[in-house]
Amino acid sequence: MAPPRRYPAAVAPLLDAPAVATVGTVAEPRWSPGGGRLAWIRATPLGTALVVDGRPVPDLVPAGTRGAASCWWGDERLVVAGPGGLVTVRADGAGPGTLLAPAAGRALAPAVGTGLVAYVDETDETCRVVVAPLDGTRGPRAVSTAGWAFDPAWSPDGRLLAWHEWDEPDMPGDGSRIVVADLGAGETTVVAGGPGVAVGQPRFAPAGPVRLALVSDRDGWANCTVVTPTGAVATVFAEAAEHAEPTWGPGQRSFAWSPDGAALAWCRNESGFGRLVTAAPGGPTVEWGKGWHHGLDWGPQGLAAVRSGARTPPTVVVYAGDPPTRSVREVAVGADAVASDGFVEPTPVTWAAPDGAEVHGLWFAPPGGAGGAPLLVHLHGGPTDQTRVEWALRLQYFVARGWSVLAPNPRGSTGYGRTFTRALVGGWGARDVDDVLAGLAVAGARGWGDPTRVGLVGGSAGGFTALLAAVRAPEGVRAVVAAYPVTDLHALAATTWRFERHAHDTLIGPLPAAADVWRDRSPITHAAALRCPVLVLQGGADRVVAPDQSAAFVDAVNAAGGRAELHVYPDEGHGWSRPAVAADALVRTDEFLRRTVLA
User: Fold this and answer.
1) Distance, CA of 555 to CA of 296 (rounded, Å)
2) What is the DSSP annotation of 66-83?
3) What pLDDT, in 10s, does the model give residues 342-361?
4) Where are the domains of the chain?
5) pLDDT digit string, tens, across residues 52-75
6) Measured between alpha carbons, how far is 193 from 197 in angstroms, rounded to an integer?
7) Contact, 449 vs 405, CB < 8 A?
8) Which strand ranges, in their side-by-side order, compose the sheet holding 292-299?
9) What per-residue string of b and e applies to 7-29 under the rule 16 or more CB within 10 Å gives b?
10) Fold entry, domain 342-596
11) pTM of the predicted model, to two decimals?
12) What backbone phi and psi angles, to 5 degrees, belong to 349?
């Protein structure tokens, strides 16, 4: 056997795996009610801290906190959520935190109102919005009755509480509701959403008449919408572009009210690129900045957000003033140890699926040019996620080493309208695979990379699609690296966590009628047909894809005469949380692809 081929000489500086694994990020900028103080979260795999006015308040935010970790309580205190309940801390970091309200499971998304705090209490079998008095005179009580409830938000006078809810078997993108409750009167009203409509992010106007902004795809695109407390639609900021990402957890803030309640700001999704814009009802849309903007919060001192891009690390920024004198100030950089001068900006690309549907993707050409470069196809998870033009060190790692990287966004991806996302209903494991294979077919013809040296990488649902694509194109794929992949759909439905427990009834078909389809679309069914080598990386504590599933798949491939390797990280879940593990997984992926694709 010939020795492994070396990577082409790289033009860009090479990232090493430890740098990729340990780089930090920032999230959730929040203005104090008076607008004079700014807090945010700084997180690295080594620890997470709440930062106030540039000063860390350590050891308060649990590592891996999922969504909406903190909120202000006045201008001198904050409320921090985590396992066991809510803790209140002083903004200056003096003194220990004090338990404010307990939780039966994990507390998330706190929101302070008048005398009350609302938050999400999530256990393995329930996810409710609860309220508790700020003075501790009584315990929390649940105010939501649906199977799932996220993101409580108070009206400025503290009289009304809104939240986002839905029921199984739906996921929030299938159909969900925004509810407004008058707790004093004991009345609740559904003001937006319903069957076949995805909504989210309820947020009351901070001033002016009582109005509620939210995101709704009722008209085909996830657009910002303003309604009254009775549900009458006041304004739809309608455009053929999405204003939100999928609801995978609480705390998304892709839009914000202006302090006077006269306008909204949102991050517009433009084929995977982001753009920050603002508009008043009935007025023109004004561009504020390019790049992805998350965690928007608009206070008297300016519009705060976390901005990122292909060459821009996550950075807390504040936009202040009005055109043409508007300024932008960088407050905190989440990845200041990484030099991004040689990073590559991707090109949005499209191609036709076998049935004529338009498929989207992003193509990263290596610094030395794509001619003859090996092609790495990166498949996102979800499957209703999207590869966006954000800070993606793992992709840049391979681009810098001479790989041409194609990131398909096949049908089922978000970012291209509800019709495109819902095109995967009943077709997961078929239409997404069609779309990826069609992309491979045009890659060589369009000069995106060498069609004889192709590797596929993907995690979770992306690993599922990658394995099925390799089965169907045995001559066109030389290797697959799949992290915590779905390989047995029946086993997945029996063991996965509650959030996605019934998603596969929608994506494939309901059981027992569709049992044969489930079996046919499971990669383990086709283990004997897999011709290329496979590396499977798996967390031993994964609650989404059980470790036994990966082990059974690898055993089946090897028993049939194939080549499959399995590496298990015993204490990891559905993703890598420890720097050493993340670095090891990247090195293993790199070395495996070098042996199998470049040899």
Assistant:
1) 47
2) -S--EEEETTTEEEEEEE
3) 889 999 999 999 999 999 99
4) 342-596
5) 998 887 555 554 444 568 899 999
6) 5
7) no
8) 292-299, 302-308, 315-320, 327-333
9) bbebebeebebebbbbbbbbbbb
10) Rossmann fold (3.40.50)
11) 0.91
12) -135, 160
